[in-house]
Amino acid sequence: IQYQVGGTAGQWQTGTTVSNLDHGNVVYFRLWDGVNGGSEGSYTVKDTGKPTITASATSTTNSITVSVGSSDNQWGMPDKPTYTVTLTASGQSAQNKTVNNGATSCTFTGLKQTVTYTIEVKAKDKANNEGSTSITKATGTVGVATGNITYSSPNWDASKHKASITLSKGGDAANNSALSIQYQVGSTAGQWQTGTTVSNLVHGSIVYFRLWDGVNGASQGNYTIKDGTAPSTPTVNTNGYTSGTWTNKTVTINLSASDGQSGISTYQYKEGSGNWTNCTATYSKTGDWNGSVQFRAVDVAGNASGASTAITIRVDKTPPSKPTVSLNGYTSGAWTNKDVKQTFTSTDTGGSGIAYYVRSGEERISNPWTINWDGQWDFQIKAVDNAGNVSAWSDKYTVRRDTSAPSVSLTGTANGSTNVTLKGTITDTGSNIYYQWSTSSSAPTSGWKSVGGKSTTQSTNVTQTTYLWVKDEAGNTAKKQATISKHTHSGNTTSGGSCYTEKVETKCSGQQVPTIKSHEGSWYTWIITCTKCDYVYDPWCKNQCSKAEDFLTTENLPRPCDKVISSYYKLTCNQDTNYHCTIN
């Protein structure tokens, strides 16, 4: 047997084994007798066997990496085989990747966690025979949040009353750089945020968090922000009001407290032993009220501060009632010489009570109030309560008090032998005046007469003591008395008699003195007659008779007369009756 490969034009080879054939080689063969060859036959070499494909895979939570290989025990594989890798899973669309140019692996990403995928790898040998293989591979589990994510305590911004927390990977996820942390606040229906710091949180905020591989998230954990710290006890500003004092103004109190976490939500007050009631930072009492009040602050988390020191607020805006005045038996407008005691009554429904009373002119007075000085006044009274509210004026009343007796003076004029005329002059600084002439030293009980012109006269020719009684409207009395005497003179008398009238004429050196009358009101009248002299000399009448010369000594002469030249006197005493009046 002879053969050739690829054609018959070449050198025939003698043998039975033809080697180094490739797919598609044609082997020509014939019988040979040493000289002649027989008819030729031929055989085409073909590779019809499938190559062997190998595949292996590794996975993460969201990816699978496939490594491929192949072999062919016939003609062989191309130097750089081309592999087709198909990834399928139930309910998902198939994914295909081509591995060529000498590559031996490919990676499928964006896969769901904990899903088992089927991986089919195909490749062709040089004879274009296609081999394939199929394997399965499951993606991993991202991991639960609990135990793999830790969170810090809230860090509060006291000025904004907002908190932040820091999330960290822990447990199995601590060193897994493929995993990140995602969070949402309030719910899981929104957009997940990637990060480790969650800010602008308030009390009650719920932070949801999970591990994330870029495609898949783990089961979620959550953390609720809580403020467990109470606010400070409120500072109470009374705006000048002093606890426990009465006022007729609105009392306004301003409150301030601090809370470094969730912030102040409301203030509360408690009046007396009542319940705590919400209020703003301003608390007011506008109407009548008397009680104690305490305050506290409550933050957004509901934590309540301690109670402030109790403040007693006393507001009375209601004026007292119009005062009534009791004059305790005295009649308004009447004159009296007694003290006038006035008692005032007023009611204060506002609660503060009556503090004092004032009279016209705003002068503060006591209650009762006693007038113990003289005068007459119209009064009205107002009540002032302890909060400063002032009542309406009381009805007007008049007090008239006069303890001074009227002033009375009395003069008497003797009308020769006829009678004595008495004249009383009466004055009083207060009330009207009344009078009565009487011979009794006791004040009259009736018969008083009004003094029209402040004077009165009375004539009498009876030797007696006459009284002029005066009285004012207040009951004050006074009196003045006059003693009336009647004297009778009879016969002539000589020097040394008990009663006489004497006329003396005296000549002076070079000139004469004028006429001089002696003291009036006596029973004797001395008349000294001189002329052309400017100086008046008036000796007192004596109670005994004496010669004129005894009174006309040089020592007693009127000036400029300095020497008595001559003198004479004449004693005369006629029979008559004269009246004399002595005022006591």
Question: What would you note in describing this structure?
Answer:
- This protein has 584 residues and is mainly beta.
- It contains no helices and 48 strands.
- β42 and β43 (477-489) form a beta hairpin.
- The chain is rod-shaped, with a radius of gyration of 75 Å.
Key attributes of the depicted protein:
mainly beta; five-stranded mixed β-sheet; five-stranded antiparallel β-sheet
Summarize the structure.
The protein has 584 residues and is mainly beta. A hairpin with a 4-residue loop joins strand 42 (465-472) and strand 43.
Measured on Cα atoms, how large is the radius of gyration? 75 Å
Structural class: mainly beta
N/C terminus separation: 209 Å
Strand content: over 45%
Overall average residue pLDDT:
83
Shape: rod-shaped
Largest sheet: 5 strands, mixed
List the helices and strands and how they pair.
Blueprint: E1 2-5, E2 13-14, E3 26-30, E4 41-44, E5 52-59, E6 64-71, E7 83-88, E8 95-99, E9 105-108, E10 116-124, E11 130-138, E12 149-151, E13 155-157, E14 162-169, E15 180-185, E16 193-194, E17 197-201, E18 206-212, E19 221-224, E20 235-237, E21 246-247, E22 251-256, E23 264-271, E24 277-279, E25 282-285, E26 289-299, E27 311-315, E28 324-326, E29 335-336, E30 340-345, E31 354-359, E32 363-365, E33 369-371, E34 375-379, E35 381-385, E36 397-401, E37 407-415, E38 419-427, E39 433-438, E40 449-450, E41 455-460, E42 465-472, E43 477-489, E44 501-508, E45 516-517, E46 526-529, E47 564-572, E48 576-583
Parallel strand pairs: 21-27, 29-36, 44-46
Antiparallel strand pairs: 1-2, 1-3, 3-4, 5-6, 6-9, 7-8, 7-10, 10-11, 12-14, 13-14, 14-17, 15-16, 15-18, 18-19, 20-22, 22-25, 23-24, 23-26, 26-27, 28-30, 30-33, 31-32, 31-35, 34-36, 37-38, 38-41, 39-40, 39-42, 42-43, 43-48, 44-47, 45-46
